[in-house]
Amino acid sequence: MKAPSSTLTIVLLGLLTAIVPFSIDMYLPGFTDIARTYETSVARVSLTLSSFFIGIGIGQLVYGPLLDRFGRLRPLYIGLLVYCAASVGCAVAPSLDTLIALRFLQAAGACSASIAATAMVRDLFPPQDNAKIFSYLILVLSVSPMLAPTIGSVLSAALGWRSIFIVLAGLIVLIALGVRLFLRGSKGPDVHYSLRPASILRTYRSVLREPVFLLYAVLSAIGLAGLFTYIASSPGVFMEHFGLSQQQYGILFAFLASGLIIAAQVNTVLLRRFRSAVIIRWAFGAQVLLAAIYVLLAAGQRDGLEVSIGLLFFYLAAAGLIMPNATALAMRPFSTHAGSASALLGFVQMGLGSVVTVVIGLLAIRSALPMAACMLGGSVIGLLLLLLGTRAQRQKKSASLTVQEALVAEDQM
């Protein structure tokens, strides 16, 4: 593959991956205006976020088999069309209940982009390059928390919150046009793939029975859960505990997000010398150490603002190493069912992330200690699962080699 076309392909796949976070982050600054428009509370407006997460979870399981049966592009175009229609509907929604329902449909369309992008990485690039490509996608993805809230706040202030959804629809049209013109070579339709419910369930069951997928899907979800813990907790920690203004918090949020961007670049360099599994192990180890230090400092009330920023920056950077490598290893065993595997991977990631977000919301975290404790717990679980999982894989491989050696010896007798 030539460099220019490869670069353009990565950019387009990154834009597809960024649709979901942009759809979440861009309209957050308009929450207050939305509540005012519908004469309700901001807490009730947050149901539009909950319905979006539910739509992503369900939509991914639906789109996965469609991507395997009809190829990557046709279901993707249908999903983007649904997204555009739902976005326009959100812009003119007459009631909050209608907006909640339309956000569900918007998510169902958006998830087609993220799982298609993941599957197409498996289609278009050699397996040994997948971790590097996912690092580039994380690079594009990491820009969304820096740009989307700013764009949303400007649009909301200048044109009203409804304009945010019109702009989102316009962006999708441009991305779809770019995909139509420049994205080539992904997997085509498979007429032998059955869409009968029993067959779909068998496919999902076969994916879940792959130990490598199950291990690294859960590990990637835990890495994402650490990021979600920070996102859900940071407003209370920095604006209430440390007393930052909204503007200061926005700048800090963008700075900490840059840790993910730097990690994506570092990962491409590390992959020249280390395997993905090794990078994941060291990244989880770093998270455990950083979070443990944070817990001890917060428990002793020595968690100053500068200390918190430094520890969180490197903790998030470690998450930026875990997610692309774990995603690449989870997808590696699949060539024929990459769409279904991508859907299940996204479902596991978003499912655990949604649960974490709900739990953090119920805990109403307003200080650093509970946030650090939640991060430490997740990282410890991730490291233990990695060590136990890789040990089980080595034992299984060793047992298999022993059986093969015994068969060879028997044949030679």
Features:
membrane; 413 residues; Growth Hormone, Chain: A; cell membrane; globular; 2 domains; transmembrane; mainly alpha
Question: How would you portray this structure in words?
Answer:
- With 413 residues, the protein is an all-alpha fold.
- The protein has two domains: 165 residues, MFS general substrate transporter like domains (Growth Hormone, Chain: A); 206 residues, Growth Hormone, Chain: A.
- It has 15 helices and no strands.
- Helix 4 packs antiparallel against helix 14.
- The relative contact order is 0.13.
How many helices? The count is 15
Task: Give the strand content.
Answer: under 5%
Mean pLDDT: 82
Main sheet summary = none
Structural class: mainly alpha
CATH topology of the largest domain: Growth Hormone, Chain: A
Identify the CATH homologous superfamily of the largest domain: MFS general substrate transporter like domains
Shape: globular
End-to-end C-alpha gap: 50 Å
Main location: membrane
Organism: Flaviaesturariibacter amylovorans
Protein name: Multidrug effflux MFS transporter
Domain Major facilitator superfamily (MFS) profile: 9-394
